[in-house]
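To the wet lab folks,

You asked to see what we're planning to order before we commit. Fair enough. Below is the target structure as tokens, and below that is the sequence we designed to fit it. If anything looks off to you, flag it before the synthesis order goes out.
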């Protein structure tokens, strides 16, 4: 918090928290920076505590991983979809899709199913 207040203080801008149980925190006083640091610490601890509780309850899932959806990534790629489009369709990051395409072998079942549902195109053979 002090890193954000420092440059502002050099420009004459101060942070003042008026309602703190009868006292106030003012970045211009001697104890102000200490009080603001403690407030920032308490806020960070609360944020971490809430995050830990949410993960423990199983509510936080995060962004879907392309690694968990590798078969779907390969199926869409075999169907001719570009990696950026695959990422948008699956709701994951494009870098994750590229990682799957670069590092793993496609699921054979997904490949066969995609090929079965793909239209067959006959091209003339030129010799």
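Sequence we intend to order:
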């Amino acid at each position: 918090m002090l890193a954000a207040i420092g440059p502002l203080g050099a420009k004459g801008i101060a942070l003042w928290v008026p309602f703190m149980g009868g006292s106030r925190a003012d970045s211009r006083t001697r104890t102000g920076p200490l009080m603001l640091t403690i407030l920032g610490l308490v806020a960070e601890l609360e944020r971490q505590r809430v995050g830990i509780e949410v993960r423990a309850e199983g509510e936080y899932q995060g962004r879907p991983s392309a690694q968990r959806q590798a078969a779907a990534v390969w199926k869409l790629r075999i169907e001719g979809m570009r990696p950026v489009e695959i990422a948008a369709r699956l709701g994951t990051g494009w870098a994750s899709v590229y990682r799957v395409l670069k590092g793993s072998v496609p699921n054979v079942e997904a490949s066969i199913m995609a090929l079965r549902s793909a239209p067959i195109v006959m091209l003339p053979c030129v010799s």
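Structural context that might help your review: The two ends are 74 Å apart (CA to CA). The beta strands are 16-20, 23-26.

Thanks,
Computational group
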